[in-house]
Write a structure and sequence with these properties.
The chain is built from four helices and five strands; from the N terminus they run βββαβααβα. By secondary structure, the chain is of the alpha/beta class. The strands form two sheets. A three-stranded parallel sheet has the order 4-1-5. A two-stranded antiparallel sheet has the order 2-3. The two termini are 20 Å apart.
Length: 134
């Protein structure tokens, strides 16, 4: 089974400037998400979709896959996460390899329970036609 972890992290937050790279215990928020993803089973890649050079650099430093900067037309306030995610997944499957599923991790939710995510992945593996949300 091949699962792509997708992290959407655009710049330009209105309420909290640079929220994706704000430090929590001396690490940018996005770093916590990448490190968490590395602990999960069946992960093919950890891909970051961003329009920001600083976020891309942090991702690459933490060995996440950052193939490009997201186009501006997919980075505005009114663009849904679904559109940005589909852009990334379509590109990945066309240029890298086919996947069985995606796991979308929000940078702004750094406190996750590893055992819950492992259970969700186990459930998904049993019934790949269902979606799971935690």
């Amino acid at each position: 089974m091949k699962i792509l972890v997708l992290i959407l992290a655009r710049s330009g937050s209105k309420r909290l400037k640079n929220k994706n790279i704000i430090k929590l215990k001396k690490r940018p928020l996005i770093t916590w998400t990448i490190k968490f993803a590395k602990k999960l089973p069946y992960i093919t890649d950890i891909m970051i979709s961003t329009d920001d050079n600083k976020i891309a650099k942090i991702g690459k430093t933490n060995k996440a896959f950052v193939p490009w900067l997201r186009p501006k037309k997919l980075s505005g306030d009114k663009i849904t996460s679904a559109k940005a995610a589909m852009h990334a997944v379509n590109w990945y499957e066309k240029n890298i390899k086919k996947i069985d599923g995606i796991l979308l991790l929000q940078v702004t939710s750094p406190f996750r329970n590893l055992s819950i995510f492992k259970k969700i992945i186990k459930l998904y593996k049993k019934n790949i036609n269902k979606n799971y949300i935690s």
